[in-house]
Design a protein that fits this description.
- This protein is α/β, with parallel strands linked by helices.
- Among the domains are: 134 residues, Response regulator (Rossmann fold); 109 residues, PAS domain (Beta-Lactamase), CATH 3.30.450.20.
- Helices cover 45% and strands 19% of the residues.
- The strands form 2 sheets. A 6-stranded parallel β-sheet has the order 2-1-3-4-5-12, sandwiched between helices. Strands 6, 7, 8, 9, 10 and 11 form a 6-stranded antiparallel β-sheet that branches.
- The radius of gyration is 24 Å and the shape is elongated.
Length: 356
């Protein structure tokens, strides 16, 4: 899985109410080739922030209305998990520890020192790129699992356990030829060529045991509710699980075969065209697509979603189905322990500000 470099399209959000410090930070960041997106108000930032764009956050603590941790917690509640650096004039050790336990990656004390601030920004961007890459990799694996039929899953579970085709056929009460067909189809969907690759797929997903069952459990009973769908292109019929119905706010009964337009109509008007175009491009090229968008519920509330899918061909070479997965960003947990990343709870640093 190719991962983006830490600076690839990244932005550094600067939320600082002090105009002189704000200009100094923006000038310093721009001189290093980063795009600084400046907000003088934390409320403006919360209203206009786009969680889908890569980057990190420099946040003054406190801001006029909210404390830095309140701003950070609000972002997390919205699913906008972004590596954050707090800067403060009076950060105590207990406050710093509390911030880092909440997930803040660093707390810097004014006056700021240039090289320490830049080092913290580089680390924040590295973490952001790594987490986005890891998430894309997980979504890729889960999208493959979503394409498996229940029978294929059952067969592969026995394959991973070391059973022979004839043994699996006896256990499931079907002929060996059918087992071979299910096995071959499932291995192609998962893009593995051997039993060892199959067994270790769960580890590649991110741990939890080197068994295929561990991966199934993550796909079906993951701590993050995973919406799974399969769109039959010929009949324009989307079938999915209960999580899909919950995510899009549609009746569970519709999951037996609703048209794709039913789901596209729930996507924010400013983003539904892009999603439609990405699906069409994926159908044409055969490449997987990944996209983030907002689902608008009947009550007007919005849910930010990351989705991934791929059109697959039938035995005649026609693109017949489009399976995929979607996760509400608010449910995605950070994969690393913020406290472990940084053993130093507080640094005394300074930054030279330009005269005005």
């Amino acid at each position: 899985m190719r991962k983006a470099s830490p600076d690839s399209g990244a932005e550094v959000y600067v939320v600082v109410d002090d105009p002189h410090l704000c200009r100094a930070l923006a000038s310093l960041l721009s001189s290093r080739g980063w795009r600084a997106v400046v907000f003088r108000s934390e409320l403006d930032f919360l209203r206009e922030h786009d969680p889908h764009r890569p980057g990190c956050l420099i946040l003054n603590d406190p801001m006029p209305v909210l404390e830095g941790l309140q701003v950070y917690s609000t972002l997390r509640q919205r699913g906008a998990v972004r590596p954050t650096i707090l800067i403060s004039s009076h950060a105590t050790i207990p406050h710093t520890v509390r911030a880092m336990r909440a997930g803040v990656i660093d707390v810097l004390v004014k006056p700021l020192q240039e090289h320490v601030l830049l080092g913290a920004v580089r680390e924040a961007l590295r973490i952001d790129a790594e987490e986005r890459g890891d998430r894309a990799h997980r979504m890729e694996i889960l999208s493959r699992v979503a394409a498996l039929t229940s029978r294929e899953r059952e067969v592969l579970k026995w394959v991973a356990a070391g059973a022979l085709n004839k043994q699996i056929a006896a256990r499931l009460g079907i002929v060996e030829k059918t087992i071979k067909a299910h096995r071959g189809s499932a291995m192609r969907k998962l893009r593995v060529r051997s039993v060892p690759e199959l067994v270790t797929l769960g580890v590649a997903f991110g741990g939890g045991g080197a068994t295929l069952q561990a991966l199934y459990e993550r796909a079906d009973e993951h701590a993050v509710p995973l919406a799974i769908w399969n769109w039959s292109i010929a009949t324009d019929s989307v079938k999915g699980n209960r999580e899909l119905a919950t995510l899009f706010g549609i009746p569970a009964a519709a999951l037996g075969g609703a048209p794709l337009a039913e789901f596209l109509s729930r996507i924010h008007p400013g983003e539904s065209t892009e999603v439609s175009e990405l699906i069409a491009e994926s159908m044409h090229s055969g490449r997987a697509y990944e996209v983030t968008y907002r689902v608008v519920r009947d009550d007007g509330s919005e849910r930010s979603v990351v989705a991934r899918g791929r059109a697959i061909r039938n035995e005649r070479g026609e693109r017949s189905n489009f399976p995929g997965v979607a996760i509400e960003i608010a449910h995605i947990e950070r994969s690393r322990d913020a406290v472990a990343r940084r053993s130093e709870p507080c640094r005394d640093v300074s930054i030279h500000q330009p005269s005005h």
